[in-house]
Every structure is written in C-alpha cells, then in structure tokens.
Request: fold
Amino acid sequence: MSTSLLLPHELVERALAASTADDCVVVVEDASSANLRWANNTLTTNGVSERLGVTVISLVAGTDGVAAASLTRDASEWPAIQALVAEADAAARSTGPAGDAAPLLGPAADHDWEEPAESTSVEVFTDTAAALGEALGRAGVDGRLLYGFMQHDLTTTYLGSSSGLRRRHVQPSGHIGVTGKSADLSDSAWVGQATRDFTDVDPLALDAELARRLDWGRRRVTLPAGRYDTVLPPAAVADLMIYAYWTAGARAAHDGATVFSRPGGGTRVGERISPHHVGIFSDPAYPGLGCSPFVVASASGPDVSVFDNGLPRRRADWVRDGELAALMTSRHSATVAGLPLTPGVDNLVMTVDGASGDLDDLVRGTDRGLLLTCLWYIREVDPQTLLLTGITRDGVYLVESGEVVGAVNNFRFNESPIDLLRRFGSASVTVPAFSREWGDYFPRTAMPALRVPDFNMSSVSAAS
Amino acid sequence: MPSADHRHRVRHDFLDLPLDRLTDSALQRCRDFGAEHADVRIELVTEQALTLRDGVVEGSHDGRVLGLAVRVLIDGTWGFAATSRLSTDSAVRAAEQAVRVAQVSAPLATERVQLADEPVHADAFWVSAYEHDPSAVPLVDKVEMFAGWSAALLRAAPVRHVEVAYSHAIENKHYADLAGTTTTQQRVRLHPVVTVHGADEQRNVIDSMRTLAPPVARGWEYVSEPAAGGWNWASELAQLPELLATKLAAPSVQAGQYDLVVDPSNLWLTIHESVGHATELDRALGYEANYAGTSFATWDQLGSLQYGSAAMTVTGDRTIEHGLSTIGYDDEGVQAQTWDLVRDGVFVGYQTDRSMAAKQGLGRSTGCAFADSPGHIPIQRMANVSLQPAVDGPDTDELLGGVDDGIYVLGDRSWSIDMQRFNFQFTGQRFYRIRNGRLDGQLRDAAYQATTTDFWRSLEAVGGPQTWVLGGAFNCGKAQPGQVAPVSHGCPSALFRSVSILNTRTEGGR
Reply:
C-alpha cells in the first residue's frame, strides 16, 4: 500500500502502534485555507494552502514522575512520521518529569473517526467574490475606497491515544472585514462578520452599511479627551471581553497576579463582579458558534495540559448572574487552584438578563454621547485590574438626542473590561459579533451592545 | 557578503530535499501558463519552545514546518498556493492552483501589479552568524540550566515564583524564480526570558521583574558563553530579586510632564512602533488599511516631513550581524541593503518590496519581502530599523546628568499605538525618578503617552555608540492572513524633554 494514500485516521493508528513510549497521543490536523485581500478598490493578494500536521506526544514514566515530549511536523509520508514518533519517544526519555502529569483519558470514539478530511478551496468565494466585484465597482463610482479581507478555513482534527481515545472534529471558520474610506481618506468606517461557509455573506449590504457610516462623517466634530457616555457595539464588546476571557486562567489568579485574584490569597470565584444579571459563557454546541467538543493541546501551559488531550469540553459559565463562576483550568491547575475542572472553549457568549432592543435602541436612548465602531491595539497595562489600553478605530460618532449627528476624532482609551461589567448602564440583546482586534483568530463570539456612562478616553488620536 | 562559502553551513536535511527538482517542476508549470513572474519557495522552519515554572518543566514543544509555496503573476494579478506535501506532483499541482487563484481573482483586480527590477542572483547561499546550533543542544541540558537559574532565584526574597520561557528558531529557505535567481539560506535566532514574581503583603502589591536580554540572531553561545558574544546572564539574574523588591516598595508616580531618559531596552519598541511601521510603504499606500493600519508618513511628505529633531537619524537595514531581520536575500530574491529612513530629523526613506517600489517608481526594492512560513504569501515586512548614536556622544550617566526633574525608563512591557502611528502609550519594566541628574529610586504605575512627531521632535540628545544596544522581538504581527516576523532595532540611550507621564492606577479610576 502506498503510504501517501493513508487516511488521517490510519496515520494516527500507525503512529500509535509505532510508539515505544509508555503512553502516546497522536494528533493529525488536515487543514486547508483560502483567502482574498483587497485595497484601494482592487485585489491585492490571495492564496490557497493545504497542510497536514502531525503531533506526537510521548509519555515516559520515571522514578520522579512522568515526562512528556511533544513534537509537531508537517508530514504526510509514513517514513517521516515514523521518524517523528521515534524522535518524540527519545525526547521523552531525556526530559525531566512534567509538573502537570496525569493519567490519559479513557477510551472514547467518534462515529466518524474513519471519515476522510474535509477541505475548502478558492471556489468557496465564487458568489461572494462576484458580489464583491460589484461592490468595489459601486464604491469607485460613489467615491469610496474599500479595503478588506476574507478567509475560509477548514480543519479536520484526528486525535488518538494509546488509552483508546479516537476523536475527530471538523472546524469550519471564516470571516470578512471591510474598511471604507472617503476619497480624501479623512473619514473611515468598518464592518466585519464571521461566517462558517460564506453563504450568509452579502458584500453589497456590507458596502451599503459603510456608505451609511461614511455619510455620518460628513459633519466632523472635534472633542477633547475625557469620560464620555459611550455606546459600545457588539464588536467592541467582543474586543474587550475576549481579552478578559484569555486572562481568566485559574493558575495566574491563584498566584495573585490577575484581576481574578482575591487579595490575601485564592481566587475571586464566587464573588459578585457585576451588579447586573450578566452571563459570560462558552459552549461548544452554541448554535452558529460550534467548536471542538474536546481538548486538543500540543503543548502544556498554565491552564492547558497535553495530558488532557481528548478531555470533553462542555458549556462553561465563567460569569453567572453577575458572579464570577469559574476560571479556565486544566486538571492540574484545577487541583492547584482548588477549583472545578473547566477547560477553555473556542467561543464566547455574553448575555444580560432583561436586556432588550438592539444597538440602535441604545443610541436612541442616549442624550449626548459617543457611538464606537471597534477598538484596536488593545494591550494590558495592569494585570491586577486588567486595565487595558487601546484605540478607537474606523468610526467614532457623536450622538445627540438619540441620533448620530456627526463623526468624532479617535481616542486612546484606558479601561478595564471587568470594571465595565460593574459600570455599564444598559445593554442590548446578544447577537453574533466579530471582534476587530481578535476576530481573525477568535471569530466565534456573540455579544450585546453596552452603554457605559463614563468610558475613559485618555487622550485624542489624530488617526482617521 | 553572501557567498558560496556559506553553502557548507546549511543543514544537510534541508539540502537533501529535492529542492531543484521541486522548484523546476513548479516554475515550468507556471511558464506553461505564460506567467510574467513566478517564484517558488521551499521552507523548513524548526522551532522549539520550553517553559519552566519554579524550575519544573511546564511545557515544551518542538515544531517543524516544511512546505512549498508558489507565487505567480499572470496578466498583472497575483496567485498563490502552498502545500506541505513535497512531491513533484504536489509542486506542479500547487503551481496550477496558484494560476487558478490568479484567474479567479482577475475580475477583482483593476490595477496591474508590476515588480521593480532586481539583478539575477544565481545559486547564492547565505547563513546567519552564529556558533552553536541551539537545536543540537539536548532539551535536558536546557532544562538543567534553566532549573538551576530558577532554584537560585527562588532562594532570594521577595521572589515567590520564577518563570523561564525559552524559544529558538532555525529558518531555511530555498527560493527560485523565473528570472533565474536561486537562493538558499539559513538563519538562527533564540530568546530566553526569565521573570520573577513577588509580593509586598503589607501593601497588597504584586508585581514582576523580567530580564532585559533581547532576542538575537545568535546560537546557543548567547546563553552559554558570555565571553563569546553571549549575554551576561549571571549578572542580570543576580540583580532581579533586588530590583523586584525595590519595585514592590516604590511609590506610585505623580502624573505630569517629565523629561525622559529612555534606555535602549525600552526605546527599541518605541522605534519599532512609531518609526518602523510608519515608514513601511505598503502601509502608507493603504495596503494594510483593513488590518495593521496606514501611516501618517504619507508619500507626499517624503523628503520634507520633520519627523524629529536634528538628533534623530534612523536607518533601515537587513544586513547587521545578529539582527533578527538580517538576511542575504529577501523572499523576492532582492539582495539585502542598508538605507536611511530619517536623516537629521527629516523623513527621507521607506521600506519597500518589489511591487511597492515599482508602483512608486523607486527603482529598486529595499528588499523587505518576507513570508513567515511556506503557507503564506510574501509581504512587505520590517527591516532592522535603528536609531543611530551620536559619534562621541554621551553615555547614559551623562544624559541623566542633564535632567533636573525627570524619569528614566528601562525594559519594555505594555505597548499600543494607533492605526496611523500617531498616538502611542508605553510602559516599562522599571521607571526611576531622576532628581538633579541622579537616580532617586523606582516608581510604580507609570506609562508614557505621546504623539509620534511631538515625541521625536522633543529628542534633545542621543547617547554615544557605547550606549547602543540591538533590541527586538520575534513576534511582529502584520497582514491578513496574519504573519509574524522577527525584527531587531538598535538604539542608544536618549533624552526627551517634557513627555506626558500617566499614572495607570488613576487611569483605571482607582
């Protein structure tokens, strides 16, 4: 049999059989991707790619504990994979014991384990690209400049272990983002959307929304730095809450190093962090945001463990009814922090009980304030308060008497998303949201819009 | 500089690949379709990451990305395809896919891409300067060394926890294009980072202190041989506990305008963000408008914009020894160069790739095309962008001596800048009060915030060559799909007058 014709699950089985370690985990990821990028109303770059990546995690028991070695290679031919297995086994024998060692998960098998991998191609854009061409043409006629990107990824993951795990997951991911600028580049707007297959993407509608927002910019208003009554659309809420989620690890909180640490020791799990009935959760089965229902880890970290490969991911409520309910853990960090096991999940949803209406309703309820589009270059300033800094981007609008009356200069903000959970005044219903800052890597989010009475705009930015 | 002498230093497992057969097959297929340009890259990127917490291995991963990429220009439209399958059939298929992508894209392309001319570099080899391949050092030896560092630090108050994060990369690229350029290159880089964490229980303050040792394009000698170009790890590690203790006990800064002396360990990042990215021509022309952003340094201001004071001269280069962006030839076959970006305070140059250079009629590309993996199309990426020291300039103490009431900052920590590179905010590892020309203890909770041109125009003096250090990072992000690039920035200590200092606790409403 030609080894190049081996199906991914067969590669896993052969690699597991070849390992001489005490235990072994093998992950095969068959990934394909397609993208188109444009600027100044013309296509710039593009591409398709295919990749077969194999990770072998060898585990060897010694007198001091269990050592782990994790090696990943781009390889599809059996001789290369056989060599990889031997290399991983040898590495595990020459490495010290792992701090997070734990027994591998017991047997579990997915019914589609032996199915071939799924793939995407540039043809996934056929309809969208045609409409995009029309949008680019229309924008050119109307004096708008469009800049944007769309990408589709399809990754099939096969995870097998010497303990009997046989898990398979197919992950579609996609997104489109478009920036529109006035011809003189003085005004800018942005729209973005996550998708799983591009059947729900309408470039002409996205361009129409950009035209509406650029029209808001016909009146320019200069405002100074200060605290403003501010409406954050779901995309901007996602920009902030994704960062908060990524810092919600149990180990660092237990060490006292994060906003989730309790002064004097331990974590703030069980503490009310918002007076509102806020829920923040992850759920692999959330409609439209589906993601891997089991842990895939090629390397251990503070709250991730290679020993947890295959561990089921279920709905995890991080904030429940305004109370910090859980932090991300591996089995090891859960033990260290004395918390329940709640592995991280690749999506995030925020809800506010009692919220009603949409973004436009929040704007209509604002006497005088700002409407943002999205946030950018968000970085952590103080981990203990989770103070973040960043920039407003591609559209800050002045709201007066419930209506947008003009476009405002950009600002640098300094704010903590955890403090915002305490301070926001009203919220919309939760809708799918695509983060400008993180969406390319974390596209599966659903958020409400929030209105914050005193959002801290620290200084003015001249960027347009 | 690049020469055939480098050939024997390229790792054999890369040279043993059927490089010519694969590239020839793909290029021939592109030629069949009438491509006006085509290039093929075969890349092997070997990376290792190792983390220890309190001397115990927390995680380790050894990755190797290997693949082939075809980029084709047909009727002025790019097409790109990549595969991790290295067979002749796969190479031909990738070429056909790239052509197909160009054809599908053509209706969207209203502007014809052209490439600046570049001499043919046939059969060129280049290997970066290093002594010891870090991948040849057994993992167990690294663990033993870092565990020893950790144990010593854990014995010193107020250290509660020690984290060591080590990473290295060995990058092999084989490039061939229809014009006849063929390059084979290898570069090595590594970066150990040690962070100590501690607390002041009575003040309920928890903080960390990190080593300032920069990432470098060197081999394992950077870790093991201080006398042979390595870092003096023993000295820096020994200072960390006391530096942390002082920081924990430090008063919170009073916000206001201060004179600022910036150490190279902090200034490299400010240069990266406010000069490096701002002088990328693709950004200035809008090619990153949907993602990384544009630039205030627009084309019409080239040659006239007063970027900074007369003390400011910034160069771009891909040639400096041990620079992270240093290479023999870029990912479009352009030979590495050195040029001015800001001369005596005036904006005089951009970083370019071949298409950007041709678009603006600049003649030759500055050689800044780079792809971070075989799966990605080359884009314009940053050269080593460095602030030049003053010949016979002052040392850091002399710069401090010129400040009556100011702040001295070392080490990078938090950074953010807007999408046109106007407004930025940076923190650091250590802020010191300067009074009457002398350091007067650490400060906490400080950040400096400015507009790029205001900041650089407030530059009063740069230090001499004796203060110049090559800093940098492995992970500069840009483009869609996202790519990361390693880049170095050299700079001297520098004195800026009247810079806005924030108190981050006040900013957080506390």
